[in-house]
TrEMBL record, chain A:
Keywords: Membrane, Sulfate transport, Transmembrane, Transmembrane helix, Transport
NCBIfam families: 3a0106s02, permease_CysT
Lineage, uppermost ranks: Bacteria, Pseudomonadati, Pseudomonadota, Alphaproteobacteria, Hyphomicrobiales
Protein name as annotated: Sulfate transport system permease protein CysT
TM helices/strands, residue ranges: 21-46, 73-95, 107-129, 141-165, 194-215, 221-243, 255-278
Gene Ontology CC: plasma membrane
Free-text function comment from the UniProt entry: Part of the ABC transporter complex (TC 3.A.1.6.1) involved in sulfate/thiosulfate import. Part of the ABC transporter complex CysAWTP (TC 3.A.1.6.1) involved in sulfate/thiosulfate import. Probably responsible for the translocation of the substrate across the membrane.
Main localization (coarse): membrane
Automatic annotation (TrEMBL), chain B:
SUPFAM superfamilies: MetI-like
Source species of the chain: Pelagibacterium luteolum
Lineage: Bacteria, Pseudomonadati, Pseudomonadota, Alphaproteobacteria, Hyphomicrobiales
Protein name: Sulfate transport system permease protein
Transmembrane annotation, as ranges: 18-41, 62-90, 110-133, 140-160, 244-266
InterPro entries: CysW_permease, MetI-like, MetI-like_sf, Sulph_transpt2
Topology class, membrane: Multi-pass membrane protein
Cellular component per GO, a single term: plasma membrane
Pfam family, one: BPD_transp_1
Quaternary structure, from the entry: The complex is composed of two ATP-binding proteins (CysA), two transmembrane proteins (CysT and CysW) and a solute-binding protein (CysP).
GO molecular function: ABC-type sulfate transporter activity
Function, as annotated: Part of the ABC transporter complex CysAWTP (TC 3.A.1.6.1) involved in sulfate/thiosulfate import. Probably responsible for the translocation of the substrate across the membrane.
Keywords: Membrane, Sulfate transport, Transmembrane, Transmembrane helix, Transport
UniProtKB/TrEMBL annotation, chain C:
Name of protein: Sulfate transport system substrate-binding protein
A biological-process GO annotation: sulfate transmembrane transport
Native source species: Pelagibacterium luteolum
Key words, A-Z: Periplasm, Signal, Transport
Gene3D superfamilies, A to Z: Periplasmic binding protein-like II
Gene Ontology CC: periplasmic space
Family note: Belongs to the prokaryotic sulfate-binding protein family.
GO-annotated molecular function: molecular carrier activity; sulfur compound binding
Alphabetical list of InterPro entries matching this protein: Sulphate/thiosulphate_BS, Thiosulph/SO4-bd
Subcellular location: Periplasm
């Protein structure tokens, strides 16, 4: 990279570059970003600001809101952890092994992006209800899946499935097999190689995938309301509370809960980008 | 790479291999394939004729038309944005880059409900912009523009997210070489950069398109559900379902799933045919 | 570049489909309604159109939207140009009047019978043979009984459900508020799923097989039996229920801007005609004027039941904030559950 650092170490906003188009592309990107995302989101901040700090604080610490946020976060967290574990296994299988139908499976991993979330919710509810194809086997064990927080976790696993697979897959593909060969030559067993060489190198990608799945799952609405049961303090999620406040024509309160979730979303994403930047420096890939 | 079946120091035992495949298979079956199969089983419960009738019924056709229109507007716009943003972020070093990247990703983890809510707050009653557009005779909410805006918001980061890491990995060497050999900016982009990123771009566009066609939460908040006017395929599914028309609802859902599956398989095939020569540049 | 061509092709196909879809119409009328009226208005719209053309008018395109009553009201507040609203309860139309001024403040009384051309009530839908022997409200709080009702925060019908239970408890416990609250709280603690709308609850009960009893609109219960399983369910009529008055009103601001006041008013008034009342009865709504319905068999289907009215509670102006508002009685039910 032809980065010329000024000898005077003057603060620069942008490093000089011979490639043209910086003003055009950045200008367009920021203008479009503002129009579609930032200005509308500012509306949320503006509406919740109308409440005043005290009222905002009261809504944010209301027991019901706290309970809903807690449900949203722990179910999303658990789903993301499960996705992280199984996502790595799926990515491994897709990259390293040949078996019939591999390409179809590879393509199908993206399906949760495409299937309307409401359809996913209805289909999952039908399957995991105590009368469903899958749910009936769990009833014998005394486990109810649909209409409990477990159901929420199932829906969120579905929603977050592609993220870990799709972030780990390319890294695994690019993984230098010479490193594995070197480890094997030096006497490491296959298990040692996997757990002390390959997995640590995958770790940033897994973390990114985890955070993406988590971020997406926290806000999920369409699929969850069908399977959740929506009982306050138990299986009520934060986005549902937003909808309820809207139905009560209480727009500022809806905006306030929205703002709280936005702040969390922003923190999560900022963490992801820091992880990626760090891993790029350390491993040379995202 | 040592993918051979005999025991080799850089691959696992056959047993480990098949156990791993089995675990992955069971997991995918439980959360992905069985739900997918369930959609198709429900759809075909009343046979082919019923499926055909459900998707050729006028309201269904209008919904398909609107869904395609919304995707046809939002996907290209987001594609242009994604390329521009990735170019600015990947090819230059400037302060605030991580912040800008985070902002671009934001719609990704924003609840779809909030994505709809923002436009209601922006254009609804008591908002600042709503009355202005209304007096100009332009309806945004509960009309096609609102549906398009909500879809654009939800699918906003897909292309950019795909391209930024890819273009950062590729560095600026190729472009610098082209420029120093006298190529203009546009020439560099079309002849050097674009061929390098085309698979990433295609993947981003396909994902963006799939999500645009399937978005439910955000669109349902701003749509108003006027049949034949603001009802997209996912909303049409919801309406049918609420009318106890389960088979028809799943028929339209199956069509949507099929559209997604076909594009994804198509992408996999295209990559197989053309992808080898770009193995380094392609993500998978 | 393959993908560019594909994209262009997709865009072209899309725009062609779009052009194909543009059609021209005369006057249009938008009716924003609530969940269970889908079947009623599908048939009523045809009948009205025929009547309207008989009067020497051009055919009219009628659009009806359905959803939870509250969220439907919200779409009107936020700018959906509805000519008429036909919602589950008066307070949702009040909300439109208050929050947007699109409906005049004194809308209640602009049409006969409190602007309710048809009424309904709340009944129990139980599994065939009533295996848990649920005969009245008191049976619903029993150990192990699962009650399915939608969420009163998002569903209009669910608000009537809670009020009906409340009315029974007031009678049962001689207006001892403490015991009434305890009863209603116990009732909701037997609810395993709070769907967001009446249709969602029906599906949960009927399709998923969850719960022992569904608290439902009378019309919704009849319809569920008719559409989903004549041999699978029974209707149980409790000793006390509530007179649910789904209200209709013209959206003044919209009809004046569009010039559709005459059409919109005729549309609502025709609901009170013999044709409108008969159609309502056919779809299991209780006609407000049964005398114009000639087919007695339609009327005989409605069981006699003692009905409390919303006025017994002090009207929606009092009930909405006190029972269903933020921090109201319904919210309090769940507070100790933490």
């Amino acid at each position: 990279m032809s980065v010329v650092t000024s000898s005077k170490a003057r603060w620069r906003w942008k490093q000089p570059s011979v490639i043209p188009g910086f003003g055009l592309t950045l200008g367009f990107a920021i203008a479009y970003l503002s129009l579609i995302v930032l200005i509308p989101l500012a509306g949320v901040a503006w509406r919740s600001a109308a409440l005043g700090w005290d009222e905002f604080f009261r809504i944010a610490t209301d027991a019901r809101v706290v309970a809903a946020l807690r449900t949203s976060f722990w179910t999303a967290g658990l789903a993301a952890v499960i996705n992280a574990v199984f996502g790595v296994i799926v990515a491994w299988v897709l990259v390293r092994y040949e078996f019939p139908g591999r390409r179809l499976v590879d393509a199908a991993v993206d399906l949760p992006f495409a299937l309307p979330t409401a359809v996913a919710g209805i289909a999952l509810t039908a399957l995991y209800a105590s009368t469903g194809w899958i749910g009936q086997y769990f009833v014998d064990w005394g486990i109810r899946i649909a209409y409990t927080p477990t159901g929420i976790v199932i829906a969120l696993i579905f929603i977050g499935l592609p993220f870990v697979v799709r972030t780990v897959q390319p890294v695994l593909e690019d993984f230098d097999s010479e490193v594995e060969e070197a480890a094997a030559t030096l006497g490491a067993s296959r298990t040692q190689t996997i757990f002390s060489i390959i997995l640590p190198a995958l770790f940033p990608a897994i973390l990114t995938g985890f955070a993406l799945a988590f971020g997406r799952a926290v806000g999920e609405y369409g699929s969850v309301i069908f399977i959740a049961g929506n009982i306050p303090y138990v299986s009520e999620i934060a986005p549902l509370l937003i909808v309820m406040r809207l139905e009560e024509f209480n727009y500022p309160a809806a905006a306030a809960i929205g703002a709280i979730m936005l702040i969390f979303a922003f923190i999560i994403l900022f963490a992801i980008n820091l992880i990626q930047a760090w891993s790029r420096r350390r491993y040379g890939h995202g | 790479m040592g993918r051979a079946d005999f025991r080799n120091p850089v691959s696992e035992s056959r047993r480990a291999k098949w156990i791993t495949i089995f675990v992955a298979g069971v997991f995918l079956a439980l959360v992905l394939f069985i739900p997918l199969v369930a959609v198709f089983v429900e759809a075909f419960r009343l046979g082919w004729g019923a499926v055909l009738a459900a998707i050729t019924q006028p309201d269904a056709l209008a919904a398909i038309r609107l869904t395609l229109l919304v995707a046809a507007i939002s996907v290209p716009l987001n594609m242009v944005f994604g390329v521009a943003a990735a170019w600015a972020i990947a090819k230059y070093e400037f302060k605030g880059k991580a912040f800008l990247t985070t902002l671009i990703d934001l719609p990704f983890s924003v609840s779809p409900v909030i994505a709809g809510l923002v436009y209601v707050l922006l254009f609804g009653t008591g908002s600042f912009l709503g009355p202005i557009f209304n007096s100009a005779g332009m309806q945004i909410l509960f009309a096609v523009p609102g549906v398009v805006l909500a879809t654009m918001f939800v699918t906003f980061p897909f292309v950019a997210r795909e391209l930024i890491p890819l273009m950062e990995d590729q560095g600026t060497g190729d472009e610098e070489a082209a420029i120093s050999l006298g190529a203009s900016g546009w020439q560099t982009f079309w002849r050097v950069t674009l061929p390098n990123i085309k698979w990433g771009l295609l993947y981003g566009v396909l994902l963006s398109n799939a999500r645009a066609m399937g978005e439910f939460g955000a669109v349902s908040v701003v749509s108003g559900r006027l049949r034949g006017e603001t009802v997209t395929m996912p909303l049409h599914i919801e309406i049918l379902y609420n009318e106890y028309n389960f088979a028809a609802a799943f028929a339209v859902a199956a069509l949507l799933a099929l559209l997604a599956l076909v594009t994804l398989v198509l992408k996999a095939l295209l990559e197989r045919v053309y992808g080898r020569d770009h193995a380094g540049a392609v993500r998978h | 570049m393959t993908f560019k061509r594909t994209l262009a092709l997709a865009a072209l196909t899309g725009s062609m489909l779009l052009v194909g879809g543009v059609t021209a119409h005369g006057q249009t009328l938008i009716n924003v309604s609530y969940d269970p009226t889908r079947e009623l208005y599908r048939e009523y719209n045809e009948a009205f159109n025929a009547y309207w053309q008989e009067q020497g008018n051009p055919a009219v395109t009628i659009q009806v939207t359905h959803g939870g009553s509250g969220s439907q009201a919200r779409t009107v507040i936020d700018g959906l140009d509805a000519d008429v609203v036909t919602l589950a309860l008066a307070s949702d139309i009040d909300a439109i009047a208050e929050n947007s001024g699109k409906v005049r403040e004194d809308w209640l009384g602009t049409l006969a019978n409190n602007n309710a051309p048809y009424t309904s009530t709340i009944v129990f839908l139980v599994r065939k043979g009533n295996p848990k022997n649920l005969l009245d409200w008191g049976d619903l709080v029993g150990e192990g009984v699962e009650v399915i009702t939608p969420n009163p925060k998002t569903s209009g019908g669910a608000r009537w459900n809670l009020l009906a239970a409340w009315a029974w408890a007031e009678e049962e416990f001689n207006d001892d508020e403490e015991q009434v609250r305890q009863f209603v709280g116990d009732l909701y603690r037997n609810v395993p799923v709070l769907d967001s709308g009446a249709r969602g609850s029906t599906t949960t009960f009927v399709q998923r097989g969850i719960g022992d009893v569904l608290l439902a609109w009378e019309n919704e219960a009849f319809l569920a039996i008719e559409e989903l399983g004549p041999d699978a369910f029974d209707i149980v009529v409790p000793s006390i229920s509530i007179l649910a008055e789904p209200s209709v009103a013209v959206v003044d601001e919209v009809v004046d801007a569009k010039g559709t006041r005459e059409l919109a008013t005729a549309y609502l008034e025709y609901l009170y005609s013999d044709v409108g009342q008969t159609l309502a009865a056919k779809h299991y709504y209780r006609p407000s004027d049964p005398s114009v319905v000639t087919d007695q068999s339609l009327l005989e289907r409605f069981p006699d039941v003692q009905l409390a009215t919303i006025d017994d509670f002090g009207g929606w102006g009092v009930v909405q904030p006190e029972y269903f508002g933020d921090g109201g009685i319904f919210d309090q039910i769940y507070q100790p559950a933490q």
